Amino acid sequence: MSYSTFNQNHTNPLTEPMFFGNSVSVARYDQQKHSIFEKLIEKQISFFWRPEEVDVSRDRVDFNAMTASEKHIFISNLKYQTLLDSVQGRSPNIALLPIVSLPELETWIETWSFFETIHSRSYTHILRNLFTDPSEVFDDIVINREIQVRANDISQYYDDLIFHTQLWQTHGEGEIEVDGKTYLINQRELKKKLFLCINSVNALEAIRFYVSFACTFAFAEREMMEGNSKIIRLIARDENLHLVSTQHILNLWQYGEDDPEMKEISEELREEALAIFMKAVEQEKQWAHYLFKDGSMIGLNESMLCQYVEYIANLRMEAIGFDAPFDQRSNPLPWMNKYLVSDNVQVAPQEAEISSYLVGQIDSEVSASDLGDFEL
Amino acid sequence: MSDTFKVKVNGQRELTVSASTDGSQGTLLDALEKEQVEVHYHCRNGFCGACRTKLKSGEVTYINEPLAFVRSGDILPCCCVPASDLDIEH
Lengths: 376, 90
What we know:
A: mainly alpha; globular; B: mainly beta; Ubiquitin-like (UB roll); 1 helix
């Protein structure tokens, strides 16, 4: 089942499953099996922004005034987010594009990944402003043990899916030996790997980002690092949309509105999916512990942050059909919401309805005075 | 044009909510907030799903089409208004 960049077989994308059907041929969006992905593309593109539009120059003064423990919190979170977006800027493309079967979903995946690369570029924008040479920060991302543990968990499901898909596309189904190790390749096994991978990505978008978001917005509450906080708000808005897409994929499978085999797998691997989510929750709590190891910051401490992780995990798990596992039903950080409301996000100039920013616009209003000097 | 409906929240409080499908009376989420119900929300725009609420009985009308997946039995109060008396768990 080798991949073709333009599948010449006549297929009907309206009857294809989301993944592991025929590969996409014509990129057409006039008819859609799951129109939600086209709507997500539109929404995401309407959110377009550039890190350079946000002035972060004042942040350097704030950063230099921070205590050592606050600096540790701030920089560690940036490192972690850099890792997350490094993975997300490429992995959906590499893992999912070779197996996707719907044009609208294919384009959504590309749009999604593209926006993660904007996020990655914005971390460089922030760090360049804080340090003359940010290399030390970037270099530590691959050495720091706390980050490594998380990197492992985040990338392993992607890597597993990518490797097995490659074997399937080059060798077909069966037992395949590579470097003395035998792999059983068939479509059902691949679909299971896909299911676990999407669950892991869903947990990433659902909670992994939120510990850092909370710290950033806690600084903003004290009117510190406001340029940085503006950027993180834009990132949070995008991540919300990405989360919606993975929730949609999982729910479409669960409700049997896509591939019937994926419905079976959703039931079969329910416990494993739950375990992936719970492990992410645990890791985020450990991350909170690591952040506050040298001391807290005003307005936020380890236990509040852990309560917030539990609170948000409840919301996220109910969204994909699990029972809420934690008692934390009220929001321990109510000020977070004001940073997550999408209307409070300052729009980029090109989004606003200022005619000077509307590309190729025509003023179609004609008043009587425009014809004042017109004579027959 | 607006109608008034009774909204029962978490089996305890009963609120009177005026609703208009043109959005001029605000959303169900706005109404809950006004009555000091502790609400869950993020985007207030129908795409994040954080305000997901169980609808035990009644019907709602969406004034903006939600982008978040709405599971059966759930509603997103940030983008809907009551279309009948409601019994909800938020």
